[in-house]
Amino acid sequence: MKRHRGKIVLVLLLLALVGSFTLRDAAARAYLRLNSQKMEEFAREALVGETEADHYGPWRVSVWREKKIVEFHTWQSPATGGNERGFYYSANDTPVSFQATGYPLATDGAGWRWADPYGNYGYTERILANWFWFDAVL
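The structure corresponding to this sequence follows.
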């Protein structure tokens, strides 16, 4: 019975971990939907250099001015070279690969997949006009 109890606890912990990603993702998407105008103002200011903020609330921000992309990182694996998730503002309303690296996108279901020659890959999909979700495996 003790062996089964340990397995049950492990399964419950894994479900809680997966569930926390789902909740975190859903919360970020809901926040964006409710605050898209304010966040778009922030992103536009970041793209023209009017703000040098590297965070927006709890999220780390990366600005790729030459590609007109502002990324909001909602989760990063604690391991070096791990996964990253979040959403980004695209001034041109076009999807891009992670960090606007320019790797080609291939249509995949409701979004697009990308891969680089080094084994990194990811997925992006539209949330709203000019806003996209990303999931990168690095």
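DSSP finds one helix and eight strands in the chain.
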